[in-house]
């Protein structure tokens, strides 16, 4: 899986908002950009995508800024990625179940579907609250702690 810069920045921005969710005041875009090292123009587009997806709300003005639109424990990493990049797994821009294969390649469709299932198993499990608190689900920690997970191939 290739994680785009936009998806990485969007998740980081959303975690930043989750970490500041206890405050009564919205978080300024500049604070997110500075805190996460995200170019402001890029962040504005990302926050617009997150707002359009209903994950973030905003308020204009001197006291304005951004909040999560739902509790941080109700927003998964998958939700954020889908908001900025679309489906988690596609084959040539289509859902894996919609891509026909013939002959010897026919089993490939099931491989792509299994890949999507495993992506979902991780990305739909981890919430912004998990990340903001630094307390990841045990099964995610177990996967990441496997030495094989750290081997680049």
From TrEMBL:
<dbReference type="InterPro" id="IPR036390">
    <property type="entry name" value="WH_DNA-bd_sf"/>
</dbReference>
<dbReference type="InterPro" id="IPR000944">
    <property type="entry name" value="Tscrpt_reg_Rrf2"/>
</dbReference>
<dbReference type="InterPro" id="IPR030489">
    <property type="entry name" value="TR_Rrf2-type_CS"/>
</dbReference>
<protein>
    <submittedName>
        <fullName>Rrf2 family transcriptional regulator</fullName>
    </submittedName>
</protein>
<dbReference type="InterPro" id="IPR036388">
    <property type="entry name" value="WH-like_DNA-bd_sf"/>
</dbReference>
<dbReference type="Pfam" id="PF02082">
    <property type="entry name" value="Rrf2"/>
</dbReference>
<keyword id="KW-0238">DNA-binding</keyword>
């Amino acid at each position: 899986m290739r994680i785009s810069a936009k998806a990485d920045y969007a998740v980081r921005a959303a975690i930043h908002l989750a970490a500041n969710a206890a405050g009564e005041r919205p978080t300024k875009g500049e604070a997110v950009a500075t805190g996460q090292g995200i170019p402001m123009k890029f962040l504005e587009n990302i926050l617009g995508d997150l707002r359009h997806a209903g994950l973030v709300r905003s308020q204009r003005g001197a006291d304005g800024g951004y909040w999560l639109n739902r509790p941080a424990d109700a927003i998964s990493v998958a939700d954020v990625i889908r908001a900025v990049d679309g489906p988690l797994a596609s084959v040539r821009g289509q859902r894996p179940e919609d891509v026909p294969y013939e002959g010897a390649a026919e089993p490939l469709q099931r491989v792509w579907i299994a890949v999507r299932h495993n992506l979902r198993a991780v990305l739909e499990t981890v919430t912004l609250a998990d990340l903001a608190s630094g307390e990841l689900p045990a099964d995610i920690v177990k996967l990441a702690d496997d030495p094989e997970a750290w081997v680049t191939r």
